[in-house]
């Protein structure tokens, strides 16, 4: 049973790492191009062959939450519980903020009608969104270290 528990914790850590990796990728590859000269540069999110990363995010977040809950239940009486709880609460806060601000603002930005001229208001909004998103990413990385450090603790039940 202990090997299965450890494997589930590792799957949680992998899933959390995938989220961070995808966010880093987007910040290095997608957002610099998308926010280069909006609304023209936002055309990558429009049309028949648009980029649609929502499918990925709508799959990975629920999977990660399920893994968090299962892992927390499995390690409820162990030294690892504190690390899992801290990471889960932080992740839940990130998700709430994401659904309240980041997703609606991004949907508003990328749905802007195509124009050849640069819209300074969009540039400013995109810049703020990207800056705040990088702060969110740094917070996720810190949470990942908290989660990973739980792997160094005993997996057996504490008294």
Question: What would you note in describing this structure?
Answer:
- 72% of the residues lie in helices and 0% in strands.
- It is elongated.
- By secondary structure, it is mainly α.
- It has one domain.
- The protein contains 4 helices and no strands.
- The model has no long low-confidence stretch (mean pLDDT 95).
- Helix 1 (2-34) packs antiparallel against helix 2.
Estimate nothing, just give the exact number of structural domains: 1
Helical segment count: 4
Helix-strand topology string? HHHH
Rounded to the nearest angstrom, the distance between the terminal CA atoms is: 19 Å
In terms of structural class, how would the helical and strand content be classed? Answer: mainly alpha
Strand share of the residues? under 5%
Spans where pLDDT lies below 50 across 5 or more residues: none
What is the element layout, followed by pairings?
Blueprint: H1 2-34, H2 54-74, H3 81-110, H4 120-149
Helix pairs in contact: 1-2, 1-4, 2-3, 3-4
List its traits.
4 helices; mainly alpha; elongated
Short description:
This protein has 159 residues and is mainly alpha-helical. It is built from four helices and no strands.
């Amino acid at each position: 049973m202990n090997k299965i528990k450890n494997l589930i914790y590792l799957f949680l850590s992998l899933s959390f790492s995938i989220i961070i990796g995808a966010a880093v990728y987007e910040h290095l590859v997608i957002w610099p191009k998308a926010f280069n000269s909006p609304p023209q540069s936002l055309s990558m999110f429009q049309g028949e062959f648009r980029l649609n990363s929502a499918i990925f995010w709508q799959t990975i977040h629920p999977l990660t939450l399920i893994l968090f809950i299962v892992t927390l239940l499995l390690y409820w009486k162990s030294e690892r519980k504190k690390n899992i709880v801290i990471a889960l609460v932080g992740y839940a806060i990130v998700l709430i903020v994401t659904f309240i601000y980041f997703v609606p603002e991004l949907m508003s930005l990328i749905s802007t009608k195509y124009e050849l001229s640069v819209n300074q208001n969009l540039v400013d909004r995109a810049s703020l969104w990207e800056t705040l998103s990088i702060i969110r990413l740094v917070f996720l990385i810190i949470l990942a270290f908290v989660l990973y450090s739980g792997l160094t603790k005993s997996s057996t039940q504490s008294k």
